[in-house]
Write a structure and sequence with these properties.
This protein has about 750 residues and is mainly α. It has six domains: about 5-75, Orthogonal Bundle (434 Repressor (Amino-terminal Domain)), CATH 1.10.260; about 100-245, P-loop containing nucleotide triphosphate hydrolases (Rossmann fold), CATH 3.40.50.300; about 250-320; about 330-415, Winged helix-like DNA-binding domain superfamily/Winged helix DNA-binding domain (Arc Repressor Mutant, subunit A, Orthogonal Bundle), CATH 1.10.10.10; about 420-500, no CATH class; about 645-755, Alpha Horseshoe (Serine Threonine Protein Phosphatase 5, Tetratricopeptide repeat). The strands form three sheets. It has a five-stranded parallel β-sheet with strand order 2-3-4-1-5, sandwiched between helices. A three-stranded antiparallel β-sheet has the order 8-10-9. A hairpin with a 3-residue loop joins strand 9 (about 390) and strand 10. Helix 24 (about 475-485) runs parallel beside helix 27, helix 25 packs across helix 27 (about 510-525) and helix 28 runs parallel beside helix 30. The model is unreliable at about 75-85 (pLDDT under 50). This is Transcriptional regulator with XRE-family HTH domain/tetratricopeptide (TPR) repeat protein. Pfam families: AAA_16 (PF13191), HTH_31 (PF13560). InterPro entries: AAA_16 (IPR041664), Cro/C1-type_HTH (IPR001387), Lambda_DNA-bd_dom_sf (IPR010982), P-loop_NTPase (IPR027417), TPR-like_helical_dom_sf (IPR011990).
């Protein structure tokens, strides 16, 4: 009978069949020639799984052949449970260790002898390649008490057969004088001996690469003065009474410092290391691999290497050095996943930025899965270090892990169709924009906010909708841009319309001009003049708020009037003339009053209450601009009475109008030398604006009240309002309106100081 081929013989046969030399396969796979030779000759009879995985890719094996080779590799690495295979040779302390000062200080503080004499075990968890073992070793070596001997065991947590608890304790006993006399027959026997030997002399134990809590618990029976450090990709949440450290990527300055220690100065220029660190996602393993590859080839420059790995397709393939590979490190964790969790992992790779919650993750899936079930799967990914948990039940996928999750190799292995990724993006985009429309509906007079839309979620109230819009902006704004690019014009126009009234509450967002420009283009693509006029009007407002360009605003308002006239829609004729009146007034041109009265007429024909109220308020502004403050006050009060008589709390849009009218009345009352009434009107404006989270309106109303206080000689009260109006303005100064507002406060502050 012919003996079966060894793993090395199989790889050699596959290499020759592919007509590859050792050097050619090394170039393709990133595995060194020496390592490949050792595998083929049987010197390395059970190579690491990442090495076999890299060779399979270099040989361009199909899914079936690749899995066959990996199964053979796992089988040769597996050993009987009673065997002695635990590694007791601790990894060396790296000379170029960088950063982690806060984490190391925290770890070493845990080991300071407490009053009760008990040293709590420390669990260090995190993403593959994040530096758990090197950080643990560094912390242990920095301990002031170096009298305790260091015991080390690699628990082989990512192998097909991790060490059993009895193997772990036995491996530790072999490192303690007198502890290895006789092989423990049972776990109880091993634990009794372990307690006895550690009672005589405290030790420091490093348990590396743990798979489960059951491997750890017997070790924790040691004497209370001993110290135990555990590293694992898993959180090991079942362990009680332990201190926990979760490692994330290095900080940018730490990443640059690490790369500078590895890459010679003549192989880098200013900015190269920061760029390379970003492309490596600040993951120590990735940066070490990149740095070593550059340093090993004097002719290679850091900037050139960064250029080669900039594309998503090449980054994981290039981050390989010998038998170290970022992709292989992630693969070991990925292969531990249940099929449903693995599907979710590949699916969330289309979530491109920021943090996300279980609802967003669920939206990427083809089949309907409950949010609760998705949360459980996300927690499992977090437990394996493939996902980072953030506060508020949110999660974050690091860039390199995202590339791995969305890699063609994973998709091919799982049998995902080539179109699957785009289908996931489409589902997510439609869910986000459907949710955005439902959220915006809470602020739109003509939309019902109750009941789910065609996609997305329903919101319980306006506050919840407001919070979601602001929190998920980094998801829905790219989705909006992608929808416009994909030609989903009806969706873009509808969602932008839903956001119109909310934009007043979040005027400092800074992207309304872009958003409404997309809506204008979509309306034109649809050939819908009514929609075009509507979104041109919104664009007038956004342009004035964000750029203070009144001439451009006037140009857009005139285009809106033309489109509205072609549509013959009374409501849009009203709004187009409203914006035209406003822009004519801002540009000090005639015709503003005529346009405003035309707007009132058209709003009346359309039965648009909010429009008519806005136009009446604008009549007050026009009167105030001519110095007729009593007439302005009369117009404001008339508009206010209309709103009050029409159930002012029926929509937030109406509430917004009430707030606006109040601060305008305050300004008119000051001009009429009635400051006490002005303060009362401003008080009401501030209260309503705060209720609807209208930060810009709060600031404007505070300024109005400060002006009223100044007219009464109340310098301190005025300064308090002005300082409050300035709070946080620098953080939201992306708009021209904010700049102009800040400038308007300076002379008022000077006047307040003089009175104070």
């Amino acid at each position: 009978m012919n003996r079966p081929q060894t793993l090395g013989e199989q790889i050699r046969q596959l290499r020759l069949a592919a007509d590859l030399t050792l050097e050619a396969l090394a170039e393709r796979s990133g595995v060194s020639v020496r390592t490949i030779g050792d595998v083929e000759r049987g010197v390395s009879a059970a190579p690491h799984r990442r090495t076999v995985d890299a060779l399979a890719r270099g040989l361009q094996l199909g899914p079936a052949d690749r899995q066959k080779l990996l199964r053979e590799s796992r089988a040769r690495r597996a050993v009987p449970a009673q065997g002695s295979r635990a590694s007791a040779v601790a990894p060396h302390r790296v000379w170029d260790f960088t950063g982690r000062e806060r984490e190391i200080a925290e770890i070493t503080s845990f080991f300071s002898p407490p009053a009760e004499g008990h040293v709590a075990p420390v669990v260090i968890s995190g993403l593959a390649g994040i530096g758990k073992t090197t950080t643990a070793l560094e912390a242990i070596h920095r301990l002031e008490d170096s009298s305790r001997p260091l015991l080390f065991v690699d628990l082989d947590g990512l192998s097909p057969s991790p060490l059993t608890p009895v193997q772990v304790v036995s491996a530790l006993l072999r490192q303690v004088p007198g502890g290895s006399e006789g092989v423990p027959r049972t776990l109880d026997d091993a634990v009794l001996r372990w307690r006895a030997v550690t009672a005589e002399k405290p030790v420091t134990v490093l348990l590396d690469n743990a798979d489960s809590e059951r491997q750890i618990r017997p070790v924790l029976t040691l004497h209370t003065n001993s110290a135990v450090v555990i590293t694992s990709r898993r959180a090991l949440a079942g362990l009680e009474g332990v201190r926990r450290i979760t490692l994330g990527p290095l900080r940018p300055e730490e990443s640059v410092e690490l790369l500078a220690k590895i890459i010679p100065p003549d192989q880098r220029a200013a900015g190269d290391l920061r760029d390379l660190a970003e492309l490596s996602s600040h993951v120590p393993l990735a940066m070490r691999i990149a740095g070593n590859r550059i340093a090993s080839k004097p002719a290679v420059h850091a900037g050139d290497f960064s250029a080669r790995i900039r594309s998503a397709e090449s980054r994981l393939r290039m981050l390989v050095a010998g038998d170290l590979a970022v992709e292989a490190a992630f693969t070991l964790s990925y292969e531990d996943l249940e099929p449903s969790v693995a599907t979710l992992f590949r699916s969330i790779s289309v979530i491109d930025a920021g943090t996300f919650d279980a609802r967003i993750a669920a939206a990427t899936l083809e089949s309907t899965v409950s949010v609760g079930e998705v949360e459980g799967r996300l927690d499992e990914l977090t437990d394996l270090g493939l996902l980072e948990a953030r506060g508020g039940n949110r999660y974050h996928l690091h860039d390199l892990v995202r590339l791995f999750a969305g890699s063609p190799r994973l998709a091919a292995d799982a049998g995902d169709a080539a179109e699957q990724t785009e289908a996931r993006r489409d589902r997510l985009r439609r869910w986000l924009l459907g949710s955005l429309e439902r959220a915006g509906a809470w602020f739109e007079p003509d939309r019902s906010p109750t009941g789910p839309g065609p996609a997305g979620v329903d919101f319980a109230d306006a506050g919840t909708a407001d919070a979601w819009i602001r929190l998920e902006e980094h998801h829905w704004w790219p989705a909006m841009q992608a929808a416009a690019k994909a030609g989903e014009h009806a969706l873009v126009a509808d969602v932008a319309d839903a956001m119109h009234w909310f934009s007043e509450l979040w005027a400092n967002w800074g992207h309304w001009t872009e958003l409404f420009s997309l809506a204008v283009e979509s309306s034109r693509a649809l050939g819908d003049k009514r929609l075009e006029a509507m979104h041109l009007g919104y664009l007038v407002w956004a342009t004035v708020v964000e750029t203070r360009d009144h001439q451009e605003g006037l140009r857009l308002a005139r285009l809106a009037v033309v489109a509205a006239e072609e549509s013959e829609d009374h409501q849009q004729l009203g709004w187009a003339n409203f914006y035209l009146s406003w822009m004519l007034s801002e540009n000090k041109l005639d015709g503003g009053l005529v346009a405003c009265r035309t707007a009132l007429l058209q709003f009346g024909l359309a039965g648009d209450r909010e429009g008519a109220t806005s136009a009446s308020s604008l009549l007050g502004d026009l009167a105030r601009a001519t110095g007729d403050h009593q007439r302005a006050l009369d117009e404001y009060r008339a508009a206010y009475d209309v709103v009050q008589a029409s159930a002012p709390n029926s929509t937030l849009a109406t509430t917004l109008l009430v707030s606006t009218l109040h601060y305008r009345m305050s300004e008119a009352l000051v001009a009429l030398d009635r400051p006490v009434e002005a303060i009362s009107a401003a008080d009401r404006a501030i209260a309503v604006a705060e209720e609807v989270r209208g930060l810009t309106l709060v600031r404007i109303s505070l300024r109005a009240r400060a002006i009223a206080h100044l007219s009464l000689g109340h310098g301190q009260q005025a300064r308090a309002d002005l300082e409050r109006a300035l709070e946080g303005l620098d953080a939201t100064s992306r708009t021209g309106m904010n700049t102009a507002f800040r400038d308007s406060l300076i002379p008022l502050l000077e006047e307040a100081d003089k009175l104070a």
